[in-house]
Specification:
mainly alpha; 199 residues
Length: 199
């Protein structure tokens, strides 16, 4: 009875040793399988690269690439056309035309647009004429304003109220005749206003 525990422990150790060996063998087989699978995967990747290169180099592959480029270009055209159509629809709504017309409605819209264009061009010409008239009137008023402003500035700077134009004429005469202001006075400068008449 005393030997039973050792006997079972020894048997258990043998069983565990066999199980460990079995696991080691399984691990080695698994590692071997992983290595083989890794090599196979690398081989497949190399084959995939070769296939892609072959596709790109042969006529069918080049045609596929050409078709892909054409599809991409047509997609861009499609987006542009869609945006233009959206813009057209928005303008039609603003102008009171058919938004999504059929062929007859489109022709009708085209005729209406031509009429509207002619009316707009006529209105534009009229507005340009009006604008030019307003600009011309503004320039004339501005010139008159400048003349009046200069005259007013001149009057406020001088003691006499004689117009600037007359003073310029007198200056020319004085310069050509080599005279002084006092030698050629204006009548208005010689007149005296009575103190009770002054404001």
């Amino acid at each position: 009875m005393i030997f039973y525990p050792f006997f079972f422990a020894d048997k258990k150790a043998i069983i565990l040793e066999k199980e460990i060996q079995s696991h080691i063998s399984t691990k080695e087989r698994t590692e071997h399988d992983i290595t083989k699978i890794t090599l196979d995967l690398e081989t497949l990747r190399d084959q995939e690269k070769d296939v892609i290169i072959s596709i790109n180099q042969n006529e069918e592959g080049q045609r596929i690439n050409q078709l892909d480029s054409e599809i991409a270009a047509l997609e861009k055209v499609k987006i542009t056309k869609h945006n233009q159509n959206q813009k057209y629809s928005n303008l039609c709504v603003e102008l009171g035309f058919f938004k999504d017309p059929d062929e007859n409605q489109f022709q009708q819209t085209l005729n209406q647009a031509d009429e509207l264009k002619k009316l707009t061009e006529t209105d534009l010409k009229d507005l340009v004429t009006q604008r030019d008239s307003v600009i011309e009137a503004y320039r004339k008023l501005r010139d008159l304003y400048e003349i009046d402003k200069n005259e007013l500035d001149s009057l406020t700077r001088r003691k006499t109220k004689i117009p600037e134009k007359n003073i310029q004429i007198r200056k020319l005469i004085l310069t050509h005749l080599d005279l002084k202001d006092s030698e050629l006075p204006f009548v208005g400068e010689l007149l005296q206003i009575k103190p009770e008449e002054k404001r």
